[in-house]
Specification:
2 copies of one chain form a homodimer. Among the domains of chain A are: 106 residues, Uridine Diphospho-n-acetylenolpyruvylglucosamine Reductase, domain 2; 91 residues, Alpha-Beta Plaits, CATH 3.30.70.2190; 93 residues, Alpha-Beta Plaits (2-Layer Sandwich), CATH 3.30.70.2740. Chain A is built from 15 helices and 16 strands. In chain A, the strands form 3 sheets. In chain A, strands 13-10-12-11-15-16-14 form a 7-stranded antiparallel β-sheet, with helices on both faces. A 5-stranded antiparallel β-sheet of chain A has the order 5-6-9-7-8, with helices on both faces. A 4-stranded mixed β-sheet of chain A has the order 1-2-4-3. In chain A, helix 2 runs antiparallel to helix 4. The N terminus of chain A is likely disordered. The interface between A and B is large, with 70 and 70 residues. The structure holds flavin-adenine dinucleotide (2 copies). One flavin-adenine dinucleotide binds next to strand 3, helix 5 and strand 9 of chain B. Chains A, B: Belongs to the FAD-binding oxidoreductase/transferase type 4 family.
């Protein structure tokens, strides 16, 4: 189990809950369900016990790799009967320690459920519905699309019951929209085994502008999609001298039309003095290189030392105040206080780095950051969920009545509480 | 209560459930909660007892008109304690008899909850979040926008408990997405008292093309938004001679760019012979006049006689087969068999008219239409919900496990079953 250092701060309440321990008979049963895909080798298990950020570590002795929904169903039915806790795991790239066991939960990995079930391309049409076997991969591709939610998932409840509503219909209004409960429930209500997602056709023309600016507020008001990346560390040399950088992507069906609109916009912001320097790319490789500047931030931060990560939704006009405020409060105890995110969405990824984990830095950050966010009626987790690390802070963004209802739903859908038992919802008093 | 004629066919199972009957003491209590807004006048009640299509009629003796969430909460707390059934009602324009009482349910109308709470306009920005007091009005405006779901509703549970998650955040991933359960639950799980909806800015340029065509299939493949309106009755004279008509709306920020794209498209479909005649409008009034052709279909159908209405989702390539099939099956017993809808969404509004209600026509239509739809893995209600008229057909589109889970959710959230008791879910055996 977790102990000492950074772990202790996530306070797991009363410790391991009284679930069963995996027995030899369990192993034999699983071997019958997923022959050859019952992993107990500690070296192979290591990668599944530790999260991407290498900040949360569990001690599971068992990793199962089902290929089909039926196998997932049989695994869960067995775990339910035997009162074994289960940790669903996808790509294990989550940011809040939700994807790894806290103690010895059985790891149920969807890594082998990666085949695309069907792919319907309407060529020049509006959408191509596709059923994807791997929620993690599907989710990854979805991140780059605007406001995409799966149309339909198929999922398995804690007791092994399969709910198969998979379809490629665009519209359906029959009864309650059950899938919505499972999307974003972080493996605490069921295991999603397939999803169908509407994908807009690949735009024919893409332009990216990477611009330096002195003022982030006004930029946020004029561009619709905005990644506001703050200068920090080594990347500053790479990027230039502006205190703020913004990445703007336009996409459409006609390169000429898009270029015209983008040029108009650039003229406007340059002549107003809002933008001081920048570059524009339409070439595929250069577009990729500019996006890499944003995508590498998280990795670069992990190399800077211990990272305190917050993923907040805030009113756009107050977005950056928290960054400047914290720089003053933390002083030299922080190596960097970095803010970036989707400005158009009011989403701030706040990252603070220090040489090593420091209780004093943590004490300055928490609960201050959460209280500040709650005062602005913001969200303490805009994108990343709550998982293990943030389960205690749900109350900053949701009223007690909502928490109670969530606990009731959990009790209804997973009466023994075997699915991701130490995640998402606060430990019950 | 409902009796005879078209009503009997909706089979309300075991009849009125054993709820209390409104007493003089109840009226006095309501008068304290919503003074002056307790309506018992039968003439005023008439409009709330009958649905827009004038096909479902209840016999409620009490209409309440709260103005605030608090008042709704107090009303529900009282009804819950007293075991009084409640029928939430918005604009009463629903198509499935969900908005009117079946027996003597207390009508809780949101008609006076019509003030906009806040409106945040980001001028040139991507969205203007707005909190709207009237779900019905908000919903109405939302219909014209692509795939808009409320960001946040506020709602009151059956026992009067208020869930206030209202906010204008674009992103929030803390805990279960509770609001999704209530959206589309047709007043059976709670009463929504406020919503916040992201509205894209009004497009600066709008063009509408209204085109006649011999072939609907190919059109469906090349245009992204398509209303396929079939020639019928009087409107045929108005419209022209083509068997199919399609309405295409483009909207963007630059009239010049949009016109260029639309002209290219028109050239293409005209030269291919796909489109035979048509007209294009950019002028506001002419745009409105063209849209009116679509919007008046439902009203015109009601004047044609008794209307059997179906709102189906189907695979696009089979969409129209059902219409031609039914014309043959029904022969002269039907005045018109009309299909229209959003072809891009695979949504077919199927309408059959006959001189008067005829059990023989109904027998030919049902369960045939539902079975045909289920075979295509379609949805038996794409947009309109199930309400009272379609509650029995949920099983054609959702598996038994899903139905059971819906019943469990209903029991959890409304244990006495006082909210819209005869709607959405099938009568329990
Ligand atoms: C470099 C980098 C960049 C990132 N950028 C972004 C970003 O821009 N936006 C963003 O939102 N996130 C971002 N993330 C976070 C993370 O990648 C995403 O949230 C990702 O979608 C998680 O998917 P996964 O398959 O790895 O899930 P995991 O990490 O494996 O699991 C996440 C949670 O889902 C549960 N889960 C996994 N599979 C299932 C299943 N089949 N059924 C039910 N529950 C399941 C797990 O138990 C866990 O609670 C980034 C991560 C990295 C490493
Ligand atoms: C001419 C015309 C055209 C239409 N076109 C379309 C269309 O294109 N697409 C489409 O989807 N629909 C269409 N409709 C159907 C209907 O107008 C819409 O579904 C409309 O949004 C219903 O809103 P309402 O406020 O009138 O709800 P109502 O009819 O009053 O109620 C509908 C259901 O919601 C429940 N309800 C109402 N208020 C609340 C509340 N506050 N909380 C909880 N439950 C509540 C009711 O109990 C009922 O079950 C059309 C209707 C007409 C008359």
């Amino acid at each position: 189990g977790p102990s000492g250092g950074p772990f202790s701060r996530h306070g797991i309440g009363r410790g391991r809950l009284p679930f069963s321990v995996v027995s030899g008979e369990d192993l034999a049963a699983f071997e019958r369900i997923v022959p050859g895909r019952v992993i107990t080798d500690p070296e192979v298990l290591e990668a599944s016990n530790v999260d991407w950020l290498r900040m949360v570590r569990g001690s599971s002795v068992l990793l199962l790799r089902p290929r089909t929904t039926e196998e997932v169903s049989h695994i869960l039915r067995h775990c339910h009967e035997r009162n074994l806790a289960v940790n669903p795991q996808g790509g294990n790239t989550g940011m809040v320690g939700g994807s790894v066991p806290v103690f010895d939960e059985v790891i149920l990995s969807t890594a082998l459920m990666n085949q695309v079930i069907s792919f319907h391309d309407m060529s020049d049409g509006p959408v191509c519905p596709c059923g994807c076997g791997a929620p993690s991969e599907a989710q990854a591709s979805v991140q780059t699309l605007p406001a995409q939610r799966p149309q339909w998932p198929q999922w398995v409840l804690a007791d092994g019951m399969v709910l198969n509503c998979l379809s490629t219909l665009r519209k359906d209004n029959t009864g309650y929209d059950l899938k919505q409960l499972f999307i974003g429930s972080e493996g605490t209500l069921g295991v999603i085994t397939a999803v169908s997602i509407l994908c807009p056709p690949k735009p024919r023309a893409v332009s990216v502008a990477f611009l330096g600016s002195l003022c982030w507020k006004m930029l946020g008001e004029i561009v619709s999609f905005l990644v506001c990346s703050l200068l920090w560390g080594n990347q500053s040399r790479l990027w230039g001298q502006s205190p703020f950088y913004v990445l703007i992507e336009t996409s459409g069906s006609r390169a000429g039309h898009d270029a015209e609109k983008l040029n108009d916009f650039l003229e406007q912001v340059l002549s107003s003095g809002l933008v001081t320097d920048g570059t524009v790319a339409t070439d595929h490789l250069k577009v990729k290189a500019l996006w890499a500047l944003r995508e590498r931030i998280s990795e670069a931060l992990s190399r800077d030392g211990y990272v305190y990560k917050y993923d907040l939704s805030l009113p756009t006009e107050r977005l950056y105040d928290l960054v400047t405020d914290l720089r003053v409060r933390l002083g030299p105890r922080a190596k960097h206080v970095v803010g970036y995110g989707h400005l158009g969405d009011g989403n701030l990824h706040l990252n603070v780095t220090s040489e090593a984990f420091s209780p004093s830095v943590l004490g300055t950050l928490e609960p201050y950051v959460y209280e500040w966010t709650a005062e602005q009626r913001g969200s303490v987790s805009a994108e990343h969920g709550l998982g293990f690390k943030k389960r205690g802070v749900l109350g900053y963004s949701k009223p007690p009545e909502a928490l109670r209802l969530m606990q009731q739903l959990k009790a209804l859908l997973d009466p023994k509480g075997i699915l991701n038992p130490y995640k998402t919802l606060p430990a019950q008093a």
